[in-house]
Design brief:
Length: 85
C-alpha cells in the first residue's frame, strides 16, 4: 500500500498487488473484499498489479520506487517516509 495525493483528503490508498497465480482476481473484487473487511479510510481506491515488488539492497520493499512509479509520496507530516511506511 502507498498513499497517493488527494486534494480533498490529503491522500488515497493505492494497493500494489502481486498475484500468486493460483487465484485470478480483479481490482474490483479486491476493493470489494477490503470494503467488507477493513475501515473505509484504509480501503484502496485503486489497485495496480505487478509481477514482483521492487526491493531495496537489503531486501525490503522499495517504497520509494513504488511511489515514483505510481505517483505516491507527499505524505502528511512532511518527509517522504520511504521504507518505513
Amino acid at each position: 500500500m502507498i498513499g497517493i495525493p488527494n486534494e480533498r483528503f490529503l491522500q488515497d490508498v493505492k494497493a500494489i498487488v502481486v498475484l500468486n497465480g493460483t487465484a485470478p482476481v480483479t481490482a474490483d473484487e479486491l476493493i470489494e473484499h477490503c470494503r467488507r473487511n477493513i475501515a473505509s479510510y484504509k480501503k484502496p481506491k485503486t489497485i495496480e498489479f505487478l509481477d514482483a515488488l521492487p526491493r531495496t539492497a537489503v531486501g525490503g520493499k522499495d517504497y520509494a520506487a513504488l511511489d515514483e512509479k505510481f505517483g505516491g509520496g507527499g505524505y502528511p507530516g512532511g518527509a517522504n517516509l520511504g521504507a518505513g511506511h
